[in-house]
Amino acid sequence: IPTVDHSVVAPFRLEGVDLPALPTCQTCLCIKHSAALHHASPHLLLLHSPRFFPKEKMSTSQAENTQSDGKSFEQLRHECLMKGVLFEDPDFPAKDSSLFFSEKVPVHIEWKRPTEICKNPKFILDGADRTDICQGQLGDCWLLAAVASLTMKKEALARVVPPDQEFNQRYAGIFHFQFWNHNKWLDVVVDDRLPTVRNQLIMLHSASSNEFWSALLEKAYAKLNGSYESLKGGSTMETKAAPGDLFNIMKKALDRGSMMGCSIDITSSAESEAKTSTGLVKGHAYSITGVEEVNARGQKVKLVRIRNPWGQVEWNGAWSDKEWNYIDSAEKNRIMQNSADDGEFWMEFEDFKRNYDKVEICNMSPDSLTEDTKHQWAVNVFEGNWIRGSTAGGCRNYIDTFWTNPQFKLLLNDADGDNTCSVVIALMQKNRRKLRKEGLDLETIGFAVYEVWKNTDHVGKDFFRYNGSKARSRTYINMREVAERFTLPPGNYLLVPTTFQPHHEADFLIRVFSETKAESIKQLNVFILSLCCFHQPPMPSPPEEETKEEKGLRRLFEQLAGSVRKASSKEGFVGKLFSTMLLRFFLDTVNQVDNTGKIEFQEFKVFWEKLKKWIMLFLSFDTDRSGKMSSYELRGALKAAGMQLNNPLLQLVGLRFADENYEIDFDDYLTCIVRLENMFRVFQALDKFNRGRVQMNIMQVNTNTPNVNPEFFSTVSSTVLYLTYLMRLFIQVRDSQAVRHFMLPLSPNN
């Protein structure tokens, strides 16, 4: 694929049925519903949304079953046939809730099976073609236009609409369809009860009254997204100007079996489904079904054939009628032999560019649309999420939290032309249609790419403060997928996908397409503990003369050891949770407890040093001296303490200890760090060969819990309670320089 500007394709947008296409040229369009608002454009605009159709031919058994009971289509059909009953889908019942979630059904709906609607129902009648796609009362023209184009690619259609489904002796009221959804095939089972009014289908239907594959396909996709209403409305995409050779690109695309669609933008909701003077409908999705070049009056004329899923509203301009009298009858018959009467029309290419704003091409093969050479694209796929309080940092405008977003390291090794590497980055948010019934719509998303050093780990705030991005999505937009193509010099890069605002949660899928196999990508999802921070330091030999600090610490130790019962009265200041957690850590830290419960001063000193370190770390992240730190700073605080967590664990820790304002107070901070350090210590003890994994049984879990007598428990508990009480007082003082003298008694009488 050349590295000139027009070297990325975007596919035909078919949300959920989104058969992924190979990026090959920058010609694409947003197939959308009229309710979606779009930016006005004086000329044809092109969009990107790379989707790859799997190169291998996948069998039905390779699709993932989606039924809640885990049963496959074959199992369910067999059970129904054995029982002599018709299937009723418990996951998508024939109720109003399957139709709409935000409004009541305005008329009385009857759910009927095809056998109740007509006498001789057929699943597919005389082959599936684009005339089988007629829009009903639902505003999902973007889906209909996509399915109409899919019918022109028989192999792909057979994958989405599996064969061997018919109203014959194996009929059991159950059908299934397969959708390419978030990088995997899903097998969706439905019963054949369809919504009707006065015995007429009210949703998608075929022009033939006894053909039902398209209506059942729409129902399966509605089930995948939660309801029929979830299919209403498409989404806009980032725009690009049309290349000069657009007609040739479109012709090559159709010659190779690609699918195409087009649409006209609207500038306000008042223009939704508005009909122009030339018979076209704004904000409506059309299918492109043919591209031809004919001789008319001694000149070459470029023509485009377009189909409206509605079927009845057509272009009334040039080449809608009399112009066909100016070409040879044989050529006319050749061109018109595959044309349909209902909703399909021809228009001159120049008129096409003047009237339509967007085009999208879904290339179903790895062939380039701009040259004959075949190119194989490598793809890397990662799934992740933005969780508020830990990894939902927002865009670069929010520098204090931006660095907490998930980070991916991209290695570009070999240049594919002009000493640059071609890469396509596609960021998709998952399952947003299904979440509409919960009041959640598409998030505003985007991404940025930074150049980094070779061995860079998860970078912090200062890196983004002083380094600009080398590439980024052109804009943040509330669309299902944001995709861009870049040409970058070989090197190491950091990819940061984000929502526009912080604290917004969503699941995402990120795909990186590259031309050479040398490129690789990995998520900076570390799980590291610094051994030097956890191994017990060697006990220092007592100096000939103790320092002033050591003398004060020894006096404190002697006081605590000699006044156990009185110290326990301070429990109310700290809380039972503190006492339990710190006690366990204390026992593990000193690591020298015997059955008599004796603790040496040097061991107590080690624990004291750790407490001092923790409080200084907390103060360094409590920048406003509020007694709390941002949960987004937890990654940095734990790293400073010697622990680096992967994103899933960090998200769980944030959810456990952060409050509703995404803040962590000192008590919870200390509890968190104690628990994690204990976990690391236990793991290290069991991982004797440093393999990074352990196997445990219940007895090993019990033996790793300290076992001390009640008297010793009371002694240590009082000690820990008193220490943490002093630490809390210290935080209230807000004097970070007082750690040496405030916490230590100055004399035996203090």
Automatic annotation (TrEMBL):
GO molecular function: calcium ion binding; calcium-dependent cysteine-type endopeptidase activity
Keywords attached to this entry: Calcium, Hydrolase, Metal-binding, Protease, Repeat, Thiol protease
Single GO cellular component term: cytoplasm
Catalytic residues of the enzyme: 141, 284, 308
Domain named EF-hand: residues: 609-644
Gene Ontology biological process terms in this record: proteolysis
Domain Calpain catalytic intervals: 86-365
InterPro entries on file: C2_III, Calpain_cysteine_protease, Calpain_domain_III, Calpain_III, Calpain_III_sf, EF-hand-dom_pair, EF_Hand_1_Ca_BS, EF_hand_dom
Family per similarity comment: Belongs to the peptidase C2 family.
Designated name of the protein: Calpain 9
Organism annotation: Astatotilapia calliptera
The gene coding this protein: CAPN6
